Amino acid sequence: MPNQYLDPNLKVFTLNSNRSLAEEIARFIGVELGKCTVTRFSDGEVQINIEESIRGCDVYVIQSTSSPVNEHLMELLIMIDALKRASAATINIVMPYFGYARQDRKARAREPITAKLVANLLETAGATRVITLDLHAPQIQGFFDIPTDHLLGEPILSDYFSKKDFPGDIVIVSPDHGGVTRARKMSERLKAPIAIIDKRRPRPNVAEVMNIVGHIEGKIAILIDDIIDTAGTITLAANALIEHGAIEVYACCTHAVLSGPAIERIQNSKIKELVVTNSIELPEEKKIPKIKQLSVAPLIGEAIIRVHEDQSVSTLFE
């Protein structure tokens, strides 16, 4: 951990979505978390009190808009307004997980593009920069008219697997065509071939495995995705890989949403180990032995320091 950060104009605050990650980030930077309270009025309205002066400061607010997404998004918008009215010099939003990112285009007639709406809300509230991690669709950066730093979780996951002693050759598997770029990056780091699962999604949160493109027989497969939500896709993929001759199946993702039947599906699946990051707080009831959690705090902490000191952030992508 670095020594105490000396610039008093850097302030780090957190709201309710992932306090443990925020505390870890603050320790990495060498600052104490800013003092603020988030409470509710009797009718459920959010009330935020900032309990220290932030006039002229560069403020970083850490808040994943994870479940309950609307509660956490509203907390964030109200916090931005409070900071703006308290004369913060800059308001930098650190969103390890950007909720609504999967609604990034019109897939059918008369659908909203909610990711763009969220970007508009953050800007209108007064945000001056966004730092986020593994957007579901990288083009969401273009929805913002303010600087947006898009960090990647794949190097952290790749580093973990590079230190494992596998009893055979590995193959990196993308669970769908959309994740090929992510799988290829991991394959380059681990010097392994890739395979692709041809998947159809007849309706949201329902997936059907159709075919496997690539050679996986007799190999150890590592599935990589950005988000695991209900775990339907990843468990179907794991089962299909075993049926087609894979020896073992590991899986990894940046954002462990793990909603609905996800934990039960993972527990009963062919997945030997699921590796995730702490971009979303994992409650105790979801911490099963099959799940290994890695920290993104050093990555985000380093990004905050570099942004604050006007240094390059691009080197963090390597």
Gap from first CA to last CA: 21 Å
> What's the Cα radius of gyration?
20 Å
- Quaternary structure: single chain
Number of H- or I-type helical stretches: 8
Principal-axes shape call: globular
What does the average pLDDT come to?
A: 94
Low-confidence stretches: none
Can you give the helix content as a percent range? 25-40%
Strand content: 25-35%
Structural class: alpha/beta
Give an account of the 3D structure:
By secondary structure, the chain is α/β, with parallel strands linked by helices. Helix content is 28%, strand content 27%. The chain has helices at 19-29, 69-85, 114-125, 154-162, 180-190, 232-243, 262-267, 297-308, and strands spanning 10-14, 36-40, 46-50, 58-62, 90-95, 129-133, 148-151, 170-174, 194-203, 206-213, 220-228, 248-256, 271-277, 291-294. The strands form 3 sheets. The protein has a 7-stranded mixed β-sheet. Helix 1 (19-29) packs across helix 8 and helix 4 (154-162) runs parallel beside helix 5 (180-190). The protein starts with 9 loop residues before the first strand and ends in a 10-residue tail after the last helix.
Summary, kept brief:
By secondary structure, the protein is of the alpha/beta class.
Provide the descriptors you would attach to this structure in a database record.
globular, alpha/beta, 318 residues, 7-stranded mixed sheet, 5-stranded parallel sheet, single chain
